[in-house]
Amino acid sequence: MAESAISIKHLTKDFPVGISGKKLRAVDSLDLEVQDNEIFGLLGPNGSGKSTTIKIVLGLLEPSAGDCRIYGKPSRAVEARRSVGFLPEAPYFYRYLSGRELVRYYARLCGVAKSDLNDAVDSVIELVGMGEAAHRRVGTYSKGMLQRIGLAQAIVHDPQLVILDEPTAGVDPLGSAAIAEIVRELKSRGKTILLSSHLLAQIEGLCDRVAILHRGKLVHAGRVDELVNEESADAFVVEGLGTENHAAVQAAIEAGGGRLVRVEKPRLSLDSFFLSQVQQRESQRAGEAGKGGKQ
Ligand SMILES: Nc1ncnc2c1ncn2[C@@H]1O[C@H](COP(=O)(O)OP(=O)(O)OP(=O)(O)O)[C@@H](O)[C@H]1O
């Protein structure tokens, strides 16, 4: 079997609180395996231990007990960290640099060779869709743009494992959809992505597998469809059937040995309705700007 991207075994982290010697258990005997080339979501309410787990994976915190490995290497080891890119929850970037200068700065910090620097910076800026704004100062960026440039700095050294702590927090649905698209693109390039979130609707369609944490303990881990599908039921979405025909459909279902549990109107999520409305207007605007440009 292929080596796990992240292997966490019996991980526990206690923080001292106050001067009485009392401890707060932030992560409690956690076992997790993240496979190579999957998008894995670490979910949980505030204070459930997501960031602490991520900091241990990154080698920034020492666990109180247990073991954490990245592609088989202890996460504290420098060689393990070379294969990792990280976007923190609330990144602080020097506001007077341009987006391009910022990504270039991180590329140099991460040891990208001088001869590869321009290509590496250009290609990640392109990937995150910041080509047009890359010359602008970071201080003028919206939250969504900041997250995208943050993603660019996280991946400029071409890491195999990309860790994103709450990548869509504070970002509007359009910006969140753009970030999700970049994450999917990273997966299609063979990368592994671990992301944390408490915004479940945004994560649902993105992650291959998720783990749900509560007070530092693993509550559940599995494929998203396995966790949320009603396995014993099938849903049909039908158009143009008048209510007068419902009884006949119900009779046919019962004749086939089934039971009609409910009839309901299929609903779009508010997120997807909002996205479709905004995207429609964005493309109208782009079309009009295109026509204007030709005149
Ligand atoms: N350095 C620290 N010292 C003491 N307690 C800490 C420290 N870091 C985290 N904690 C505590 O550990 C628990 C888990 O925190 P953590 O930040 O890992 O949760 P989280 O799931 O990432 O939450 P959020 O969604 O709010 O970021 C919380 O109770 C938090 O107060």
TrEMBL record:
Keyword Nuclease in record? no
| Pfam families membership | ABC_tran (PF00005)
List, alphabetically, the PROSITE patterns matched: ABC_TRANSPORTER_1, ABC_TRANSPORTER_2
Q: Which domain of life is it from?
A: Bacteria
Q: Does the keyword Nucleotide-binding apply?
A: yes
Concerning InterPro entries, the annotation shows: AAA+_ATPase (IPR003593), ABC_transporter-like_ATP-bd (IPR003439), ABC_transporter-like_CS (IPR017871), P-loop_NTPase (IPR027417)
Key words of the record? ATP-binding, Nucleotide-binding, Transport
Q: Please state every residue range assigned to the domain named ABC transporter.
A: 6-240
Q: Where are the transmembrane segments?
A: none
Family named by the database record: Belongs to the ABC transporter superfamily.
Q: What is this protein called?
A: ABC transporter ATP-binding protein
What species was this sequence derived from?
Coraliomargarita sinensis
